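$ ./design --mode recover --in tokens.txt
reading tokens...
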């Protein structure tokens, strides 16, 4: 006999947050996350389930101006990536985001970076308006925007489930992704395989 799932299955009060699954963070992109495309099957499974249950889906995107402060030419840590309106900033076709997904653009002004999908956006207000109490989180990258979004969500009072097979890390230092998951768990996030919460 299998043990019962420790996490309630997806249902009313849940929203899916797909963090920054954009071409520049996928293999071939300007800031590719190693094995970034390995997240697509788990995210596809989540999108299917949320559509079947008519539950809300949010997709955040890095949406930088061409002279963004996080780019190396401006003294930042990163190569240019996710410049607003360029193909690298697009969601990949393979993501198959539903037409009614709510897109949350972040870090849209030159002088400020924002890793969290809550930082400088109306995500919290939109979730509150829908009565969302729990977020199912997936996307890129585990050690940057996923971690920042999850920690903000927990601080705002949401329950958070992170899909282990739906996230992938940059791992600038080996182990960054695992340490990020541990930090999220320590603050109250539950990390599970997609199949455990999306039967
Ligand atoms: C991200 C690095 C720079 C992310 C965004 O989405 O995780 N990482 N900008
Ligand atoms: Zn960025």
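writing sequence...
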């Amino acid at each position: 006999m299998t043990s019962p799932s420790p996490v309630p299955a997806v249902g009313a009060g849940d929203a899916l947050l797909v963090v920054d699954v954009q071409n520049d963070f996928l293999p071939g992109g300007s800031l590719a996350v190693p094995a970034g495309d390995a997240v697509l099957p788990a995210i596809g499974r989540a999108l299917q389930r949320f559509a079947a249950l008519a539950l809300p889906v949010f997709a955040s995107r890095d949406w930088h101006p061409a002279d963004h402060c996080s780019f190396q030419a401006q003294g930042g840590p990163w190569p240019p990536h996710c410049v607003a309106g360029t193909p690298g900033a697009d969601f990949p076709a393979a993501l198959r985001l539903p037409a009614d997904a709510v897109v949350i653009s972040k870090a849209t002004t030159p002088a400020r970076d924002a890793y969290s999908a809550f930082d400088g956006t109306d995500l919290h207000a939109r979730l509150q308006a829908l009565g969302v109490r729990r977020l199912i989180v997936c996307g890129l990258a585990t050690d940057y925007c996923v971690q920042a979004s999850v920690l903000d969500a927990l601080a705002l009072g949401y329950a958070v489930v992170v899909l282990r097979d739906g996230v992938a890390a940059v791992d600038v230092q080996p182990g960054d992704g695992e340490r990020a998951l541990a930090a999220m768990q320590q603050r109250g996030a539950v990390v599970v395989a997609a199949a455990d919460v999306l039967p």
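exit 0
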